[in-house]
Design brief:
This protein is of the alpha/beta class. Helices cover 30% and strands 23% of the residues. Helix 3 links the parallel strand 1 and strand 2.
């Protein structure tokens, strides 16, 4: 199974263009702007940062431009890691569902974990490893499709599957805020779901027809964006 997953993502990333990303916040969507603002408020300059599942390397490039003192990436796909290697101090192939991260405990100030957890049958090892390598006071940003987003609720009324299920055949676990928060139960951490936006078009999840969220409306966002701060100094 792991070999099949590796091949799938190798093939996927082979088809993606090699991009040097720009980070003009004026051209970003609300979710990406929230990520940028959160990382800049935390301050990654000179800090040790890890991107789990960096994909085409977008956020690795951002962390590099922001002056990360040490930058590492892990992925199941060697193609992804080859893409990211020029920007990183270390890259390592890891199956985060089953394997340990190759760093000591409390090694990183900031960890990014975007759009990965939905691909894992069991997230227990992944969460344990992320929390192990995160320093006290460190920041984890995690995102995953929201099973009960606004358009997914509309789609269910229309007899269609939620976007989290219908949008990608490699998604094997589906999350609401409750399930995601429960994955961190027992860890010394403060959790906060960050408001972004949700599509208003049930047939076009990436439609520009969108509504910004705030307060209880955050539960309707297309993606759950979770900020985790590990307790400590």
């Amino acid at each position: 199974m792991a070999e099949q997953i590796e091949k799938y993502f190798d093939d996927y990333f082979q088809k993606k263009p090699d991009i040097r990303y720009e980070f003009d916040i004026r051209g970003m969507g609300r979710k990406d702007r929230r990520i940028v603002r959160t990382l800049r408020e935390f301050g990654v300059s000179g800090k040790r940062c890890l991107d789990i599942g960096p994909g085409t390397g977008r956020w690795v490039q951002f962390l590099k431009k922001e002056g990360a003192g040490y930058l590492a990436a892990v992925d199941i796909s060697p193609v992804s890691l080859e893409r990211c290697a020029p920007f990183c101090d270390a890259v390592q192939q890891v199956n985060i569902e089953r394997e340990k991260l190759p760093w000591d405990s409390e090694s990183f100030d900031a960890v990014l974990f975007f759009e990965i957890i939905e691909h894992l049958v069991d997230c227990t090892n992944a969460i344990a490893e992320v929390m192990r390598v995160l320093k006290p006071g460190g920041l984890l940003l995690l995102s995953t499709p929201n099973l009960v987003s606004f358009i997914s609720r509309l789609r269910m009324v229309l007899g269609m599957l939620p976007v989290a299920i219908a949008g990608d055949s490699t998604h094997v676990r589906f999350y609401r805020r409750q399930e995601l928060a429960a994955a961190f139960a027992g860890y010394p951490a403060r959790l906060a779901f960050l408001s972004t936006s949700f599509s208003l078009h049930p047939l076009k999840p990436k439609s520009h027809l969108r509504c910004p969220s705030f307060g209880w409306l955050t539960a309707l966002d297309d993606s759950l964006l979770l900020c985790v701060r590990k307790d400590g100094d």
